[in-house]
Amino acid sequence: MQPRNMSMSGVVDLAALKAASEAKEKAEQARAQAARDGGPAAPASPLAFDVTEETFERDVLQRSTEVPVVVNFWAEQSDASVQLGSVLERLAGEYAGRFVVARVDVYANQMLFQQFGVQGIPAVFAVLAGQAMPLFQGAAPEDQVREVLDQLIAVAEQRFGIVGAPVEAGEATAAPAPAPRPATPQELALSAAHDALDNGDLGGAIQAYKNVLADEPANAEAKLGLAQAELLHRVQDADQQAVRKAAAADPGDVQAQIAAADLDLVGGHVEDAFGRLVDAVRRTAGDERNTARVRLLELFEVIGADDPRVTAARAALARVLF
C-alpha cells in the first residue's frame, strides 16, 4: 500500500471514547493525583505495550496528549500482523520516544475493534490528542512504514505541539514488570477449561466452559473454547469415510450434511463446511432448516465473527433465508 498523506481529514470518530479535551483534563488530574500520592499514576511502560478496553483511556487517550500513540490491531494467528508489529516495535526503539506502540489483540478486545471500524488485520491507527486517524490497512514494507511514521511525527509536532520524550538506550524495550495480580475465580475457571481442552478431556472442557458462561454469559473466550470443544467432541469417534459417503449419497439428509460439515471444519476446509450447510438450509424447510442453520451459527463461533469467511457465509445464509 502507499503511505497516507497525513491530514486531519482521516480522523476517526471514536464515538463513546473520550475527546481530546477530556483526555487532556484527565491526564492533568492523574499527574496531579500522582504528585499528591508520591508516585506515578500508572506503572512505567515500555515504548511498546499491550492495551485492553479497560486500559485504553489511560494508556492511549491520555498518553496521546504527550506522545503520538500508534495503535496496532493484531492477532497471534495472523503472520502479517505479527510481522508488521515487530517492525513497529523495533522502530519505536529506534525513534526513542518520538512515538509509542499500543498493541490491541482483536480477539480479546472486540469493542475497540468495532469502534475503530477495523475491516481486517493488520490494521494500524495513530491517536493524537485523543483523536484517531488510520495509518495502514494490511502489510506494508518497512520504507513505507518509516515514511508514514515520519509524517505522523511531523503532524504531531506542527499541529498539536506533541513531541514525545527522549528515551535512553535500553528503556525503549524494557520496563519494570508490574506486580502480579491474583487471578479471579473466573480466570481460574477459564484456565482449568483450557487445560482440559489441551489435555483432550473434551467432556471436562465442555462442562468447565459452561460453568464460566453461567457466571459470565458474554465471555468471548469461553464461548470460543466451548464451540471448539463441542466440535472436537462430536467428531472424535466419527468414521470419516462413512460420514462423507452418507453425505454424498443424500444431499437432502440434514444430519449427514451436518456431520460432514463438522469434519470439513476440523480438517481446515472452512469454506466447504460453510457452503455445505448454507446449501442444506437452502434445500430444506421447517425444523430441518433450523437445525442446519443453528449448526452453521455454531461453526461461525469456532472461527470467529471477524473472520472474512464468516462474513461471506453470513451473507450467503441471509440470501437463502430472505
Automatic annotation (TrEMBL):
Keyword Transferase assigned to the entry: answer is no
Question: Per its UniProt entry, which superkingdom is the organism in?
Answer: Bacteria
List, for all copies, the residue spans of the domain called Thioredoxin.
36-154
| Any one GO CC term of the record | cytoplasm
Matching Pfam families: Thioredoxin, TPR_19, TPR_20
SUPFAM superfamilies in the record, alphabetically? Thioredoxin-like (SSF52833), TPR-like (SSF48452)
Question: What does the UniProt keyword field contain?
Answer: Redox-active center
Protein's UniProt keywords contain Transport = no
The biased composition feature labelled Low complexity covers 30-45
Task: Give the GO biological process terms.
Answer: response to stress
Disordered, as annotated region: 26-46
Any GO MF annotation of the entry? protein-disulfide reductase activity
Family (UniProt): Belongs to the thioredoxin family.
Know the name of this protein?
Tetratricopeptide repeat protein
